[in-house]
Amino acid sequence: MWDVSGRKGHWQKADTDQVWCAVLSPDGETLATANRAGMIQLRDPATGEIQKSWSGRQGAIKCLAYSPDGRTLASGGDDKMIRLWTTKGELLLTLEGHGGPVNGLAFAPDSLTLASVSHDHTVRLWRGSSPADNVPAK
């Protein structure tokens, strides 16, 4: 974790499994990390201490995204699926449609649209009135 204005590190954690991605919550109070073993960990960004941890999938998780409202965390990775989670680690929904690993995720400002990019050379948009009814957009 770095203070970019002061260009100095605050903490560094040595994990037994490589951390492949990290994302700060919109309020800056939580750092979500994921690793090649499929674990998602919510950490205190000031100390790096793990606050919550859960298994997110089989295989590596390569990307995470918080919804702008901070209520949903999306994960994607080697199993070609996207999972939407509550910030308590409860699975809301699994989205299927990519033919290769999911390498990137981003929510729209409305928190209702999710963009995903895959190793299969596709970009998909997923929309819904809530995370539970996301469907692929054309």
Whole-number total of structural domains: 1
Mean pLDDT: 84
> What Rg, in angstroms, do the CA atoms define?
15 Å
> Strands of the largest sheet, in order across it?
3-4-5-6
**CATH class bucket:** Mainly Beta
Number of strands: 14
CATH superfamily: YVTN repeat-like/Quinoprotein amine dehydrogenase
Identify the quaternary structure here: single chain
Question: What fold name goes in the CATH topology slot?
Answer: Methylamine Dehydrogenase, Chain H
Q: Roughly how many Å apart are the termini?
A: 38 Å
Largest sheet geometry = 4 strands, antiparallel
User: What are the secondary-structure elements, in order, as H or E?
Assistant: EEEEEEEEEEEEEE
Mass-distribution shape? globular
Look at the helices and sheets and give the structural class. mainly beta
Work out the helix count: 0
Low-confidence stretches: 134-138
Measured as a percent range, the helix fraction is under 10%
Beta-strand proportion: over 45%
